[in-house]
Amino acid sequence: MYTKRVRLVNFRNHIDSVYDFQKYNYIQGDNGSGKTSVLEALYVLFNLKSFRPQSVNRAISFNMSFCDISAKCDDEGHEKTFRYHYDTKADLKDENGKISNKTLYLLNHPVICYSPEFRQIVSDDQSDRRKFIDRIAFQLDIAHFDRLTEIKHLNSMKIAELKKEHHDITYLDALNEKIVSVSKKVTGARQCAVGQINELLRGFYSLLKDNDGFLLDLRTNTFRTDILAKEITDRRVVYGASRDKLYCISEGRIYDRFSSFGQKKTFVLLTLAAGLKVLEQNGRNGIITFLDDFEAGLDENRIRKVFEMFSSSSQIFVTGVKNHYFSDLHSIRIQVKNDEHSQ
Asked: Own/partner pairs for 254-263, CB < 8 Å, 24+ apart?
């Protein structure tokens, strides 16, 4: 499936904009023209949230009461229409009416996104890093989402019990039995996704002839049930999949800081490209890839080589101020309109 046309109404500085797309697209325009907002709108439509660190209601154009994103898509020769409307709450519809099964909708519209505003695997917050790998794991196994929800609920129940002056040990033991079982499945799914991504990362860095060779490293205490006793003493949760941590490593050494912007960006892009390939190798299709401000910080040789790693069955959207390197991509020029309404 790929998006043929999108209409944005009251979405940031797009008061009423319509754009037509092909499989590979380059969206160009001056800074502030709204090119990133086109990607954000499509991301919201298919992922039901923004990749920017704010809720969708902040994307509503100034002095307007709602925003609307609608898209015509091609699904193996069949046309589908999707519409996301937000005023006081979100409303999602297709040509048959309201979409109630959001989990299945997300599964059927996998999205890979790079944006300078979307830190993901290099975020300082470990929860953001877990979310990155969980999106891949969810696409490989829909039950992963339910397990994450269950872990969160069980931990909330345990936290409430640990705060009490006198603990119900029988109750805590019952909670821990469930938490251990679910945590092993969640961590196992993450380990599987990390392993497949790392296998591809090794090949990508080899193609770049890059000596860095960064990989992902997942560290967990899920298989150390002996630390559950420590929670009673500390009165806080220290065990399980909710405490999994993801790091970037090279030759066994953890790197939380990169030597250059280009090195860091290359790692993020290659990790995303590897995630895309993992999904394709596991039978997922209809993937949409967003590469916002893709060329910035990369030399010409690396730009081409990294882009080729994304070239696959997915539909791709690249943004930039000017298209210097991709004359073969469908080019869309965005002009600044109604800038006084931007937010």
From this structure: 254/217, 255/214, 258/122, 261/297, 262/297, 262/298, 262/299, 262/302, 263/212
Strand pairing partners for 78? 75
Whole-angstrom CA distances from 242 to 38, 75, 221, 239 are: 34, 37, 10, 8
Report the pLDDT averaged over residues 45-64.
Answer: 94
Residue recorded with tokens 């690396």: 302
Its domain, for residue 187, covers: 110-285
CA distance 135 to 201: 18
pLDDT digits (tens, 9 = 90+) for 277-313: 999 999 998 899 999 999 999 999 999 999 999 988 7
319 and 270 together in one domain: no
Which distant-in-sequence residues (6+ apart) come within 8 Å of 126 by Cβ?
A: 244, 245, 246
The two tokens of residue 226 are 């002996």
| Chain centroid to CA 313 | 18
Are residues 116 and 255 both part of a single domain?
yes
Per-residue model confidence as pLDDT tens digits over 193-232 = 999 999 999 999 999 987 779 999 999 999 999 999 999 9
Q: Model confidence over 6-22: pLDDT tens digits?
A: 999 999 999 999 999 99
CA distance 242 to 222: 9
Please name every residue paired with 67 in a beta bridge, in sequence order, or none if there are none.
86
Let me know whether 194 and 151 are in one domain. Answer: yes
State whether 88 and 146 are in the same domain. no
